[in-house]
Amino acid sequence: MVGSLRQDGMISITTTAEEAEEPKRVQFPAPTEGNTLRPGEPHWANYVKGVIQHYRAGPLPGFNAVIASNVPLGGGLSSSASLEVATYTFLQQLCPDDGDLVAKALACQKAEHTFAGMPCGIMDQFISVMGKEGHALLIDCRSLETFLLPLTDPSLVVLITNSNVRHALTGSEYPTRRRQCEEAAKALGKASLREACLADLEAARALLSEEAYRRARHVIGEIERTSQAARALQARDYRTFGRLMVESHNSLRDDYEVSCPELDELVAAALEVSGVYGSRMTGGGFGGCTVTLLDAGAAEEALQHIKEKYNGTATFYFTTPSDGAKAQPLEGVTSLSA
Predict the structure, then answer these.
(1) 167 pLDDT exceeds 80?
(2) CA distance 137 to 150
(3) Distance, C-alpha 209 to centroid of its chain
(4) Which residues are identified as catalytic?
(5) Which of 7, 38, 51, 258 is the 20 to 30 Å CA partner of 241?
(6) What average pLDDT does the chain have?
(7) Per-residue pLDDT tens for 177-202?
(8) Rounded to 5 degrees, what angle do the CA atoms 149, 161, 109 make?
(9) What pLDDT sits at residue 70?
(10) For residue 65, which of 337, 338, 333, 327 has the smallest C-alpha distance?
(11) Residues 5-35: pLDDT tens digits?
(12) Relative orientation angle of helices 44-53 and 79-94, to the nearest 10 degrees
């Protein structure tokens, strides 16, 4: 995101994303106490407007800004959170806030809840704000504590594979799953499924529908897998980490039911390659991407094998853990990367 101040109190935002709906440019007055922003059309602009409205300092001046991104939209790679956090970081250059990173992530999450209508969790915003080069980030969504886990082994590669498929259920099913989990927690007498263990779930199984039982079983199991995976990563036990990735995918497919044949096909193909530790879907599901952990020496073979076995046309990205959003001052403008 790159931009500059203007003096008339107006905000002009332009996106270069081909996938974004028209119009690609929106203009509106900077919010004031008596003139708040509201969501509307085009949908892509709501992520930006929501962050502007919920920004934690002010009053904000007018400005021009252009957005360019190489994060696939709707691919499960946090494109919305990266846009929100880049916008917030841009606003910090125009009107600094107190620098509280947790509050920054929460404001971006609130923007997605209230302006994009998606009751998302906090993970995407946290990693976009607090990511650190060479590290994975363990997030405690109850306490909002974060823990950096080194991920700098040069023999490892993280491969992102975009199925280039997006099924129609993507947007509607996340709120449904969230509601099902909240209902299951209530039946268990817990504030959230974070407070429950599998023994609690089994004891209350008669109180739950089969669907709610499986949703809760996924969440409770995933919390335990996450803790185990963090320990494995710290111990550089990549085989255990990879096994947990596969267990996670199977649970997302069978209990949470957010995978799809294309994602399952990509995971199965990756696991056929020697040197692949694990693979799973990522994001909200029903299309989008998989993430695969593998030996660097197996990278090219894995790419070719997946390409040959997949019935669709995939796009591949070899990635490394990087820093979160940061300002990059340029002459006459301020740009943000996320």
Answers:
(1) no
(2) 9
(3) 29
(4) 124
(5) 258
(6) 93
(7) 989 999 999 999 999 999 999 999 99
(8) 55
(9) 85
(10) 333
(11) 999 999 999 999 988 899 999 999 999 988 9
(12) 40
183 φ/ψ angles, rounded to the nearest 5 degrees: -65, -40
Q: How far is Cα 126 from Cα 138, in angstroms, rounded to an integer?
A: 10
Structure tokens at 168: 């129609």
Give yes or no for residue 321 having a pLDDT over 90.
yes
The strand pairing partners of 242, in sequence order, are: none
Is residue 214 over pLDDT 70? yes
Q: Which residue has the tokens 């399952």?
A: 264
Distance CA 230, CA 250 (A): 19
pTM: 0.89
User: Could you tell me the end-to-end alpha-carbon distance of the chain, in angstroms, rounded to an integer?
Assistant: 9
Tokens of 240: 């255990």
For the chain, the three-class secondary structure string (H helix, E strand, C coil) is: CEEEEECCCEEEEEECCCCCCCCCEEEEECCECCECCCCCCCCHHHHHHHHHHCCCCCCCCEEEEEECCCCCCCCCCCHHHHHHHHHHHHHHHHCCCCCCHHHHHHHHHHHHHHHCCCCCCCHHHHHHHHCCCCEEEEECCCCCCEEEEECCCCCEEEEEEEEEEECCCHHHHHHHHHHHHHHHHHHHCCCCHHHCCHHHHHHCHHHCCHHHHHHHHHHHHHHHHHHHHHHHHHCCCHHHHHHHHHHHHHHHHHCCCCCCHHHHHHHHHHHCCCCEEEEEEECCCCEEEEEEEEEHHHHHHHHHHHHHHCCCCCEEEEECCCCCCEEEEECCEEEEEC
Residue bearing the bigger pLDDT, 168 or 146: 146
Closest CA to 293 of 260, 258, 246: 246
At residue 225, what is the residue type? Answer: R
**Nearest to 120, CA basis, from 149, 147, 89, 83:** 83
Measure Cα distances from 332 to 2, 3, 328 in Å. Answer: 10, 9, 12
Name the residue with tokens 């299309």: 287
Burial class of residue 286 in the structure, from the number of CB atoms within 10 Å of its CB (0-12 exposed, 13-18 middle, 19+ buried): buried
Q: How many CB atoms lie within 10 A of CB 326?
A: 11
